[in-house]
Amino acid sequence: MSEEEKTVIGEETQNIEEADAADCGTGETAEKSGEAAEAACGEAEKGTEASSEAGADAESEEDAGSACGGEAETDSADDGKAEADGAEGGDGAKKPGHRELKALEKKDEEIRQITDRYMRTLAEYENFRKRTEKEKQDLYSYAVKDVMAKILPVLDNVERGIAAIPEESKDDPIAEGMDKIGKQFMKALDDIGIKPIEAEGQPFNPDLHNAVMHVEDEALGDNIVAEEFLKGYTYRDTVVRHSMVKVAN
Question: What's the gap between Cα 182 and its chain centre?
Answer without folding.
Answer: 63
